[in-house]
Amino acid sequence: MRGITKQFPGVVANDRVDFEAAAGEVHALLGENGAGKSTLSNILTGLYRPDAGEIRLHGRQVEFHSPRDALEAGISMVHQHFRLVERFTVAENVALGDHGREGRSFRLRSRAIERRVADLAGRYGMAVDPRAHVWQLSVGEQQRVEILKALYRDARVLILDEPTAVLTPQEAEVLFGTLREMAADGRTIVFISHKLHEVKAVSDRVTVLRAARNVATVDAADATPRSLAELMVGRGLREGVRAEPREPGEVVLALEDVWADGDRGGAAVKGVTLQVRAGEIVAVAGVAGNGQRELAETIAGVRPATKGTVRVAGKAPRSGDPRAAIRAGVAYVPEDRLGTGLAPSVSIASNLALKSYREPPDSTGPLLRLRRIRDRALELINRYRIAAPGPQAPVRLLSGGNLQKVVLAREFSGKPKLLVAASPTRGLDVGAIESVHAYLNEAAGNGVGVLLLSEDLDEILTLANRIAVVYEGRIVGERPRAEANVEEIGLQMAGGEDPRRD
Amino acid sequence: MPAASLVFAFFASGLVLLATGHDALSSYRRLFDAAFLNHGALGDTLVSATPLAFTGLAAAAAFRMRLFNIGGEGQLYIGAIAAAAAGLYFGGSGGPSAFAIAAMVAAGCAGGAAWALIPGILRAFFRTNEIITSLMLNYVAGYLLTYLIFNSRSYFRQTTGFNASVFPTSKELPSSAIWPATTVHVHGGVALPLGAGFAVLAAVILWVLYKRTRFGFEATVLGDSPRAARYAGMRTRRKIVAVMAISGAIAGLGGASQDGDFRHTLDADPNGLQRQFYGYSGIVVAALARYNPLAVLPVAFLIGGLQNAGNALQGPDFPSGLVGVMQGIILFSALGGELLVRYRVRLSRKPRAGAAAAPEAT
């Protein structure tokens, strides 16, 4: 790709970017959110058309008029936000839009497709039931479906946008093996990430984008995480926040033998017993799909507990009633920011008032106090440095990091006793991750009990005072930060034995 | 944007007129005169516009929340039946009685709301598709209306007198149950039906409800993202039921206005009220108004004028299908315009592969 330029109203997303990847290599594309990685890959996959510049594939200039052109040229992409039909099964999603093999016949040959999908899944160690419906799957599982889609089409160029964001270190290792194998077959892997050690571990070369431009292409072997980070951020890095020692106060969350069903029916949370004290951060580590979302939702009242009790500051709010949980002092940062945590087409101001609108001072009787809601929105936008056109703009116009700031600003302003944060930094860039971490620390410092559900071990180790590991809906280990080590936690997350249990 | 769509619609229908050998400009001129300028035209336009305002508001109230209540038609019938019952029961001789009229308004609203609650409750508690259930109930309501007069000896049916023995008719409302109209002395006197006033009132109330109240806030969030609404602790089922009831009540009030303002009887004739399709046209009105209750009023007036003119002008020298064609084109261009606003259309030539890229000035 040479001289690629793409402008959106008010933004230059790509500014004369050159990018080149050879067959048989894993080429990492590194950059902060908004650096232009997604735009570049969307151009490569035919989703956008460049304003200027040219694309050459296997030496020949090509022009993609639609994603289909790119697909037919052998370019597949695993997007960060998945392109899946929720009501279809895994196999149906994989076969969707495919015109080779089974897809050639008019009749949908489900059996054959399912078999091939199961084969591929087995070969690359991805546990996915081809007959499961996509809406029933966790984020991690959905990503596997996306990868399978590309493998099914036998893509020559595979672009992966943040593929490891939802995987455990072990799973990521397996994925890296897969990617290397695919590269050895002569495929080109474009690996988009902002996790430095991963980039270093898996790729042959690294192209760094910053502020819409290509700042460097370097050999991975010569680079260090630090040098890459400096290229990416353009300034020296601050040391990561370390888990601060804290004096925990009284118990704000007490889970006693809590059970809850998943969307597919059947228990997803199986007898969890856990405590969080005021002023501490307790992390629940686990791979996506092991009941974390269901656990978080049960605490937040969105999902009823089928058994056991959830106590918040000594009282047990009615199970399955989000309003009762909010009143009891539970703040909840859901994994799905846009759509659950926020109403996309509704204004930023209204989204900031999403939980406070029903009581004074945001409303008097049945009437809203719109001026107050707007003024407070302005104040929060300033205080949390949310980059927004204005309080009345629909929230969906914001970038991922700013969306998360809107959620956090709202949740903190409710003066919670307990904060449940599910994957709060998923898909955010380094700068935004830093500020989210700072806010979580600040909350704990102010005496809020924080329950952090995350798949990112680095994050957990930097923030948490205590670490619990969840596997298949059960807590399989719990220890203070001081006694934690990565290998052991990783092993437990992957379902290995807890050595201290026997 | 809606203005541009209208201009485009007039232009496109002009082409249709030209193609069929009519003088476009003079046809429009006559249309406009018949709708708004001729003697008595404004009054007639109001007669057409008032029910459209009600059904338009009913649709706007529900559609804003992405509840697709297609049942305005049936809710209007049931409102008309209930209001006629109230009028017949409470009305007497003499001038308009505030009590009788209030009873009709209340009955009309209650009837429409009750009819809308059926799809509303089914949707809220059993996740039934409200489009289908509300649509099907339109037919039920229509047949019920016909049945009351033509196939039964109901309370509404006129059973005495010569005419009644020849052809089934419904009872006339007593004089105190007939809604008074205010005459404005412009243009030779224009009668403002009481129902038009109710429509304006309903529009204002709806606007306040959606813009300024907690209820409206919840409805907006729920319409945009049901998951976010639940997450924020909103009572989503109650809200769905309430919005359907409000929507139905407004349509039902439109039915009451049909009885009290215009027809002065329960019109069960399959070629009468049931041929007007106010409920369906109301959806068009609401869509053109982009579900904004205040915008529904002028749009209803415009579409009402168009219909009135169509009725007035139909004849050998005026293309009878013109009004229908125009309505279709207007809706089409309004929806098309919406699309153009949302996407940027770029016209580009397909460059040949391998052709030298134009030198870029940097």
Model description:
The complex is a heterodimer of chains A (502) and B (362). By secondary structure, chain A is of the alpha/beta class. Chain A folds into two domains: 2-233, P-loop containing nucleotide triphosphate hydrolases (Rossmann fold, 3-Layer(aba) Sandwich); 251-493, Rossmann fold. In chain A, 32% of the residues lie in helices and 24% in strands. In chain A, the strands form five sheets. Chain A has a six-stranded mixed beta sheet, with helices on both faces. A six-stranded mixed beta sheet of chain A has the order 15-18-19-13-20-21, sandwiched between helices. In chain A, helix 4 (110-123) crosses helix 5. Chain B has a domain at 54-293. Chain B is 68% helix and 3% strand. Chain B has helices at residues 2-19, 24-37, 41-63, 72-90, 98-126, 130-150, 162-166, 194-212, 214-224, 226-231, 236-263, 278-288, 293-313, 322-342, and strands spanning 157-158, 169-170, 181-184, 190-193. In chain B, the strands form two sheets. Chain B has a two-stranded antiparallel ribbon. Chain A binds chain B through residues 3, 52, 54, 61-63, 65, 300-302, 321-326, 332, 334, 336, 339-346, 350, 353-355, 357-358, 363, 366-368, 370, and chain B through 212-217, 220-221, 224-225, 227-235, 350-351, 353-354, 357, 360.
Q: Summed up, what is this model?
A:
The complex is a heterodimer of chains A (502) and B (362). Chain A is 32% helix and 24% strand. Chain A has 502 residues and is α/β, with parallel strands linked by helices.
